[in-house]
């Protein structure tokens, strides 16, 4: 069996950070011509074979024989044998292998769902080639719900039967207890879902059902709404109108373009891109909206439903198995007009996508760091180009990559300069912690304390922002200096006082707080160092015992519903002071919130990676944007030890473009993205000597020239992660260089033992 089109490289000029990605298709041409395979079934006669790409980490499509009486077209979903197993796959092209057809295994069956589109298949190939991931591995993201290929059958699910007692002799084992506990609250679930959640076999669920402890119910298919584009939106301001008309025109043209929708927070960007969605629906096409953390965006969903009369289909990790199946299937049949999702929503089987919106396009949550390593914003641009459709990148603080592309007119730009309804942007003040010092073991400076007092006295709300969960980031022994470290990771254990635990934020390890130092055995000497949100909450309680305060962090709020409840309760002014991590920074709109205090504005600058300043600026700008969104003006106070730092200066002066200018000059000078290219290799394994040896061999074999440099190998900052030792190499090249062939050649020169993993990260965002 041999590869066919899966390994033929799609145009890899892929200059995502530069020109429109070269997706091997003339600009503006909306439907790429079918390549090597006719759209109508053919291949009659004795030797009918197809190449089938399997959703497994395979580089190549395999040939299969098409049995008598079966007709297949490219993109068809099929079941094929693979060794002793049967797996699903996608017909990728005509089989071209040398293997005699008599020896080929036959396709078992074709699934009755619309075939994967040509654009969808080329997108899989393109992402695979760009990110240097096996195409089958990328395909797996596109066929993530195999059960969606089967016709929906009424599904049996279970609820807990109220007051049912176990029959005599029925033993309440731990797995049985876990399942009953799971059913205490929450929706009915299928036996398979229950088994997976409880970490046991399906037979355990059946056993409980037979014992009469479960109530069977038939699950109805997930109801997906039909947003109505005819519903009128609000009347737009002249700026908003112009922006909306521009987007509508792009959608109507049905051709590729990338536009940056650049506007301050509260300027109505969301209202404006709703118009683009409406235009796509009007044409009978679909719209895809990517959000960085969809599970956190209940406010967004409510607002969408108010505007269009029905909610969009959601796509993210919090969906149940049944929701995923029904949504995938409905999307493939063109029954879902609007999908809002996290990055994986890019890989859904849209038959006719009309527009893509990437909201908060600068957000680093778009970078997937595990498995296939890709940047969803960049892949979305490629998807738009392949599909011949417009894409809007939306932000108040665009990524430097996008900003530079807009400045050089590779991307169009639409600006919304003012907040809607004349709300003014908040005043940003710097609190110089060198002078304005908090008392010992406290973290709020006198001026911020005063501002909190005034805000509460005025009957308004305040938010304190610290991007650090838990109570204290470090616990050490005052007697011997021993620091509590994770045994599996290069990281300190974080104290979570509410949960009475020490936790590793990288691998999830938890252990009780030690009473005595594990090193010297002294008792009562373990001390918390530095603040997390829990510690700030303690200080707030001490300063303002009357105030209603709450912590808003991903580990104190469980799931989207809890976040939504908290957001609503803040909106109803049931809280006076909110102490939050970045969960809090995103998109929420609180009219009574007038003071934002940033406890440690320098926090993000310490890592010192390439984008530290940019990211800090974006995050703090977004946090600041929470203040003064209603009628009352807002005030933002940034506590810093570096008031002269360009990030702080730019925030205080409201000089966003000045900051970008300076940042761009520094990157240009250093040949760093977006003006140069980076790719990282991360070598990892359990045996440190072997990891070191492979990393050194890669270092020796590295491509080097006048313009291409390889730094490392060096121990990764997270030199130990989840028990694996890690070394990094970083390739740096001019922007005009195609790094993928260089890396492919490089890796070919070095033997990689099976115990070692080498991850390739093209355009790295994390340097840990
Ligand atoms: P952004 O996405 O730029 O932060 P939004 O679209 O969320 O801005 O708008 C901010 C607030 O102003 C929202 O509550 C929105 O409903 C309101 N708003 C924006 N434009 C209009 C308009 N033309 N008419 C009425 N309300 C508007
Ligand atoms: Zn750890």
UniProtKB/TrEMBL annotation:
Task: List, alphabetically, the Pfam families matched.
Answer: DEAD (PF00270), PriA_3primeBD (PF17764), PriA_C (PF18074), Zn_ribbon_PriA (PF18319)
Polar residues composition bias: which ranges? 1-10
Q: Where is this region: Disordered?
A: 1-48, 224-244
Q: Which Gene3D superfamilies match?
A: P-loop containing nucleotide triphosphate hydrolases (3.40.50.300), PriA, 3(prime) DNA-binding domain (3.40.1440.60)
Q: How is the cofactor bound?
A: Binds 2 zinc ions per subunit.
Q: What class of enzyme is it?
A: isomerase
* E.C. designation(s): 5.6.2.4
Names of the cofactor(s): Zn(2+)
What PROSITE patterns is this protein classified in?
A: HELICASE_ATP_BIND_1 (PS51192)
Q: A GO CC term? A: primosome complex
The keyword Lipid biosynthesis is assigned to this record: no
Matching entries from HAMAP family are given as:
PriA (MF_00983)
Please name the PANTHER family in this protein's record. PRIMOSOMAL PROTEIN N
What does the subunit section of this Swiss-Prot or TrEMBL entry state? Component of the replication restart primosome.
What is the name of the protein in this document? Replication restart protein PriA
What organism is the protein native to?
Azospirillum lipoferum
User: What lineage, starting at the top, does this entry show?
Assistant: Bacteria, Pseudomonadati, Pseudomonadota, Alphaproteobacteria, Rhodospirillales
- Name of the gene encoding the protein in the UniProt record: priA
């Amino acid at each position: 069996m041999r590869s066919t089109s899966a390994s033929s490289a799609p145009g890899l000029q892929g200059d995502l950070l530069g020109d429109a990605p070269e997706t091997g298709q003339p600009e503006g041409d909306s439907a790429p011509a079918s390549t090597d395979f006719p759209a109508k079934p053919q291949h009659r006669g004795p030797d009918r074979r197809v190449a089938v790409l399997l959703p497994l980490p395979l580089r190549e499509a395999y040939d299969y024989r098409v049995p008598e009486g079966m007709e297949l077209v490219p993109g068809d979903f099929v079941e094929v044998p693979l060794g002793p197993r049967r797996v699903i796959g996608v017909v990728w092209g005509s089989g071209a292998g040398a293997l005699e057809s008599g020896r080929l295994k036959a396709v078992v069956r074709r699934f009755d769902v619309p075939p994967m589109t040509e654009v969808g298949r080329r997108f899989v190939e393109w992402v695979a080639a760009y990110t240097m991931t096996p195409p089958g591995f990328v395909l797996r993201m596109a066929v993530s719900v195999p059960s969606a290929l089967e016709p929906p059958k009424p599904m049996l699910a279970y609820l807990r039967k109220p007051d049912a007692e176990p029959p005599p002799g029925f033993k309440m084992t731990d797995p049985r207890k876990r399942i009953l506990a799971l059913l205490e609250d929450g929706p009915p679930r299928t036996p398979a879902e229950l088994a997976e959640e409880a970490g046991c076999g399906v037979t355990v669920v059946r056993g409980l059902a037979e014992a009469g402890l479960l109530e069977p119910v038939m699950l109805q298919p997930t109801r997906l709404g039909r947003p109505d584009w005819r519903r009128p939106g609000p009347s737009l301001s002249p700026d908003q109108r112009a922006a909306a008309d521009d987007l509508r025109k792009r959608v109507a043209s049905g051709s590729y373009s990338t536009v940056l929708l650049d506007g301050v927070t509260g300027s109505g960007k969301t209202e404006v891109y709703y118009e683009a969605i409406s235009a796509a629906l009007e044409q009978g096409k679909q719209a895809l909206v990517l959000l960085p953390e969809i599970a956190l965006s209940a406010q967004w969903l409510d607002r969408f439903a108010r505007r269009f009369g029905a909610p969009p289909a959601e796509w993210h990790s919090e969906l149940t198995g049944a929701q995923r199946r029904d949504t995938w299937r409905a999307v493939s049949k063109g029954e879902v007009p609007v999908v809002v999702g996290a990055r994986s929503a890019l890989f859904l089987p849209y038959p006719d996508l009309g527009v893509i919106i990437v909201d908060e396009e600068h957000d680093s949550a778009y970078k997937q760091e595990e498995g296939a390593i890709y940047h969803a914003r960049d892949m979305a641009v490629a998807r738009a180009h392949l599909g011949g459709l417009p894409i809007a990148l939306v932000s108040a603080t665009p990524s430097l990559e996008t900003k530079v592309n807009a400045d050089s007119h590779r991307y169009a730009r639409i600006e919304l300069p003012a907040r809607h309804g004349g709300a003014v942007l908040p005043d940003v003040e710097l609190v110089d912690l060198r002078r304005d010092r908090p008392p010992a073991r406290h973290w709020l400076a006198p001026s911020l304390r005063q501002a909190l007092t005034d805000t509460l006295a005025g009957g308004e709300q305040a938010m304190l922002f610290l991007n650090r969960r838990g109570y204290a980031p470090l616990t050490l022994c005052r007697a011997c200096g021993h620091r509590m470290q994770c045994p599996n990771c290069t990281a300190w254990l974080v104290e979570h006082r509410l949960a009475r635990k020490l936790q590793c934020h990288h691998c999830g390890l938890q252990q009780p707080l030690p009473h005595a130092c594990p090193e010297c055995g002294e008792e009562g000497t373990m001390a918390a160092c530095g603040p997390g949100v829990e510690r700030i909450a303690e200080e707030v309680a001490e300063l303002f015992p009357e105030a209603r305060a709450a912590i808003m962090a991903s580990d104190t709020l469980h799931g989207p519903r809890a976040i939504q409840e908290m957001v609503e309760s803040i909106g109803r002014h049931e809280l006076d002071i909110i102490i939050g991590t970045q969960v809090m920074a995103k998109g929420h709109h609180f009219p009574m919130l007038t003071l934002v205090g940033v406890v440690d504005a320098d926090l993000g600058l310490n890592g010192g990676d390439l984008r530290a300043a940019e990211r800090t600026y974006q995050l703090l700008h977004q946090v600041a944007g929470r203040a003064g969104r209603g009628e009352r003006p807002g005030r933002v106070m940034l506590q810093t030890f570096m008031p002269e730092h360009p990030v702080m200066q730019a925030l205080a002066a409201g000089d966003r473009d000045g900051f970008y200018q300076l940042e761009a000059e520094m990157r240009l000078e250093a040949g760093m993205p977006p003006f140069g290219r980076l790719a990282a290799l991360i070598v990892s394994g359990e045996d440190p000597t072997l990891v070191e040896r492979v990393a050194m061999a890669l270092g020796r074999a590295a491509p080097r020239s006048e313009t291409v440099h390889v730094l490392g190998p060096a121990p990764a900052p997270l030199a130990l992660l989840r028990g694996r030792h890690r070394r990094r190499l970083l390739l740096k090249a001019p922007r005009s260089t195609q790094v993928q062939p260089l890396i492919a050649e490089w890796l070919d020169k070095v033997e990689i033992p099976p115990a070692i993993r080498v991850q390739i990260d093209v355009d790295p965002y994390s340097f840990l």
